[in-house]
Please model this.
Amino acid sequence: MASSGATGDLSQRTGRTAAIVPAAGRGERLGPGAPKALRLLGGQPMLVHAVRALAASRVVDLVVVAAPEESVDEVAALLNDHDLGADASVVQGGETRQDSVARALLTLPDDVDIVLVHDAARPLVPVEVVNAVVAAVADGHPAVVPALAVVDTVKEVDEGSVVTRTIERDRLRAIQTPQGFARAVLQRAHAEADLGVTDDAGLVEALGIPVLVIPGHEEAFKVTRPFDFVIAEAVLARRRESRGG
Ligand code: CTP
Ligand code: MG
Model:
């Protein structure tokens, strides 16, 4: 595999960078409707925004989207019809986010040595975040995640909703995507770690490999509940305004 070998050492790097976009979720917390990645934001499917945001980074060479089973053809057509600025392909997603990422991982060409994993549900990630994640991986960090400090006080509760402890907030981070990996490390993590984790860095952590946290961005938030759509439309409107259009 390119120059990275089994250790994930990218110091003599010649390989390409791929971005995997898990987009096969239903969007149950959004309420009834089309699969979340295909719902419209500013008149375009959320997925199209997400792929554009990745392709806007010159360092991303190719994008692989994991689509809902019944929407594979529709997603392929979308990727074809829009000028997205990077090679894009589609695979059928799986039962869980982890399965969807694993399926996309299997299709990557041999010369890819850095892999980003980016939620379709984070359509407005600024290109600076994408660039910073790739730069940190290329610099030798095997796993890199963008994050923000947590603003709310976080407490743990028991089954009866009674507080069992308050977690020291200064040490908490809310993790975003894209998460970036040396390809060899992400592949090993998917092959060896099989936990119910909600992100890819969680698999890498389980192998005892350090995961570097770098600054994320408010606009990289995940569209999860209906209110998030209101915020996303407002961010788009502000961007249009600042471009003078
Ligand atoms: N995802 C995926 N395959 C799955 C489940 C989720 O590719 N089987 C993707 C989603 O499409 C999304 C990302 O993983 O881009 C983050 O998941 P989440 O925000 O939970 O999205 P959904 O699973 O669609 O939403 P919900 O949990 O509310 O149903
Ligand atoms: Mg989900």
Notes: The pocket of magnesium ion (ligand 2) is lined by residues 25 (CB under 6 Å). The two ends are 45 Å apart (CA to CA).
